[in-house]
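pinning this so it doesn't scroll away 📌
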Amino acid sequence: MYPKVDFPKKVTEKWLNRAFAPLSDFLNRERPEDARSIMAYMMFMYNADQQFHYRNCITRDSIVLDQSGSLVACGEEALRYNFENEESIVVDRPSKEERFVHPNVTDWMEKSLNKRTEEKYGEEVCIFLQELWGPIVNFDFCNLKTGYPIKWAQMRYCLYLYPTDFPTKITILFVGNEIVERRCSYSQYSEYEKLVRKLSFEGWQVITVIREFLDRDLDQFRLYLSKTINLAEPRDYGDGHDIMYI
């Protein structure tokens, strides 16, 4: 039996070794040739109810092991690691000046994003609201808020959005290039992962958005979006938040 792993106040190498020990041992036993490659894409989510939950940071699929390290469940793409030769449909999108943007998208962005945030995330937010989220909510963004949805948090290099009147716990995470390209410090990246894990632990489904996702096959992204919404737990309207952006 592996010891129970709780979230630390500070992520250390010792804690990481404990958190990933069940998955590492499982992969070295079942997939020894691929173990190291797979581990590079895995995130520790939480250890609860005698189960370890891990997620592939690219496919967002999950694998679950019990406290003894035995397999409980494994998604079809949870252990995928080879993305180099993947064929994808590139979105042929007109330039920002030429394409139509719904007035509600423009209005929400002007009211909700300050100049610095708009410069950093504006294009991705605009595409997501116009082409993906807007059709789901009939372009009604009145209850779409910016911020980490469950508590005060100082987020570096990320932008969180969440709908306050949506029936399930959904939050949309726009990830900055500093995180994607690992140009932030180790502690900053650890804090980013810690806050994502906390949301998952409390039943929130995080829709991760980076520009590369928006420029590839949008039908595939829509399937991911639909699946994520369906997996989310019912919303607790007692949640509150405050946030700082950097």
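📌 and the second one:
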Amino acid sequence: VELAVNGKMPWYTYGHEVHERLLRRLLSSRARPATVSLHLVRHKSWIPRRAPYLQSHGDAMAVVGQYYAQPWLSSRATFWEEKARGEKGFRVRNVVTADLLHPTNRGHKLLADLVVHAIRHEAAALGGDEPWDAADEALLDAPLPPPLFERNDEIADGIAVVEDSFRSLAMEERSSGFEWAESGLWQPRRGFRADRQGSTLTLQVNETDFMRPGREFDASLLILGLLRSSSGMANANVSCLGECSCPPRFLKGTEPGRYRQTSNGLITASPPYPCTISVALDQPKTTPGVLEIVGLCAVSNDALHN
């Protein structure tokens, strides 16, 4: 599960409430998975007068993990000494991409090694002098403590519409050039795909599309999910065709230094329902690309203000 924190993350601010809600959702699931936080060190000096080693958000974000007695790992533990000495294979360009935030293939390998080491350490303990026992089972069955941040368990973060549910939103008679297809090798996704200038996808969204049993939800803001990569992707011009007055949006599909990922683009706030959305492919002037739209997310008003 990825929680992307690209901006500043000061201590004890609203961003940590999002982090806590994500962690509580994992810990309260029926399977009660083993969880560990993994923090990637930023290599941008965004915080004045702070040493490079301390530029990570990990120190601030670890407070939430500590509240729930969760272990956490940091990429600083894998290569910082080698990086500081400028050793081959451990320089900044070897471990993060051009944006100085996202790991390269080698950076991902180092992070994976850190997780593998933690798993081996725990396995050795379970097979040695710390076997699993009734006390561990009791901890699994224990209820979660009250949220660290007030009312944080009452806020609904958002609901995503993907796969066949997303496909059903398309108005075929008002769309052209897009096809429903699967893409991606390591993380296959299904969505609407087009590669010709002028291709248009029209979606009609109703508030009922975000209803879930036993859960009240105010779909105050809509976010479109498109695939983004460092090359080969087209852009999207997004506009509303209904009664709302939302401004047109331009969403970039190609972003140098980014590996293939789902990018979220704000398209409308407090829309009147039903909301009709038009997505038009816009080819870059240099290299033509493919536009892939994979989902739609609604965010509640509570989440926006917390």
